[in-house]
Amino acid sequence: MEQFFHIRERGSTVRTEIFAGLTTFMAMAYILMVNAGMFSTLEGQTTYGAVYIATALSAVVGTVLIGLLSNLPLAQASGMGLNAYFVYTVCLGMGLSYANTLVLVLVDGLVFLLLTVTGLRKLIFEGIPQEVKVAISAGIGLFIAFIGFQNAGIVVSDASTCVALNSFNVYSGNATWASIMPMLITIFGLLAIAILAHKKVRGAVLWGILGSAVVYYILGLLTVPDFYATAVAPNLAGDFFGAFRDFADFSLFAVFKEGFDFSAYIAANGTGSFIVMFLTTMLAFCMVDMFDTLGTLYGACSCGNMLTKEGEVPNMNRAMLADALATCVGAVCGTSTVTTFVESSSGISEGGRTGLASLVTAALFFIAMFLAPVAQLIPTYATATALIYVGVLMMSGVKNIAWDDPAKALPGFLTIAVMVFTYNISYGIAFGLISCVFIKVFSGKARELSFATWIIAILFALTFFLTH
């Protein structure tokens, strides 16, 4: 291990690496429940158990790859925000099937792989204006927090205002204890996560989810009539290996079995619309994946003083290669884009410096694969706490937008606002880029725009004119 990982050379020990890997797993294990719960809304196309196994398996592969290829203490799994884009924007919004969207994820992985090998990744990354780059993360954070509030039942649809706060009034008859109790669980669970994180408790998000679930069942069984029959018994009905059977039936190789049949979409929207949709949606997947990975690599390595003298991430191309390969594996398994998790910084803060920590995290994800029946007991009201809190963490990027400069503030604001208001991540990126191009052109700074920026902006513009 010393010859391969250079543990002593990097100022670490085997024990420290093991503890760091455990810490990283505790910090990001929530993705197993959250991702499976999100995909379970695609009823008839996949199941909670199938996506749980797909998420765990792709996390194992991705984390092993990044540990062995880059020798960095990082971990990978289905990315937050990208999973919401997959389910709510592409599947439920655009009308593509679960298998169709997996094709887009697979192409994203292959394109990301090509960009990494050829070096074009850097060209495209530099072609995106800085204000749009930093706004993407913040916009996705607000977007998934919005989904969390909806999953908890706190935010509901309204005929006049589109959205509204759900009723907590138990006196007028508009609400009952059975309806407000789950919402209160989410609110207090969110507060508990914030308190635990403030006190530097390892795995604060995971403990918040598990604690919320325990309180939910205790209060439900003690105070809500027929709670056992409606909320408990259905979750106990599945057998232990049902998740693995669902994985084989619904998710594994679904991208090849049904994914390349886009006839339903083409019949409804036309061939031209399909081509533009395919290009722009794949581009959105790739861009978000790229920015998320680059930001995480720099952020995680900088917090552990692991950057090179030139300020670069060590073995960065190998880390990006692992990310691209993991995304391809994730698509084959049946889950959304696999990316490097910012929660890896928790393990680095505990002293992790080598890929050995990654292998420990991967081993724990492998063990977690066999706990799907237990994870399925976690209610959406508990996992909603993770969605909202991760949204809080991702909003930190807004401080890097030059709000005192209208030429930069508007594209940044549109990127964030349009993502949430249209329930579509790619639309936010499109409005941010297009507005930036217009401002640069009409303020006499068109020369500052790169060729890549023009191409991406034009593709997104065509999306609006040809698909809506």
Automatic annotation (TrEMBL):
Query: Which is one GO molecular function term here?
Result: purine nucleobase transmembrane transporter activity
Q: Which Pfam families match?
A: Xan_ur_permease
Q: Which UniProt keywords apply?
A: Cell membrane, Membrane, Transmembrane, Transmembrane helix, Transport
GO cellular component labels: plasma membrane
Q: Does the record's keyword annotation contain Transmembrane?
A: yes
Main subcellular localisation: membrane
Transmembrane ranges, per UniProt, are 18-38, 50-70, 82-99, 105-124, 136-156, 176-197, 204-224, 262-288, 354-372, 378-398, 410-443, 449-467
Record's bilayer topology term: Multi-pass membrane protein
Tell me yes or no: is Transport among this UniProt entry's keywords.
yes
PANTHER family given in the database record:
XANTHINE/URACIL PERMEASE C887.17-RELATED, XANTHINE_URACIL PERMEASE C887.17-RELATED
Instruction: State what protein this is by name.
Output: NCS2 family permease
Q: Which organism is it from?
A: Candidatus Avoscillospira avicola
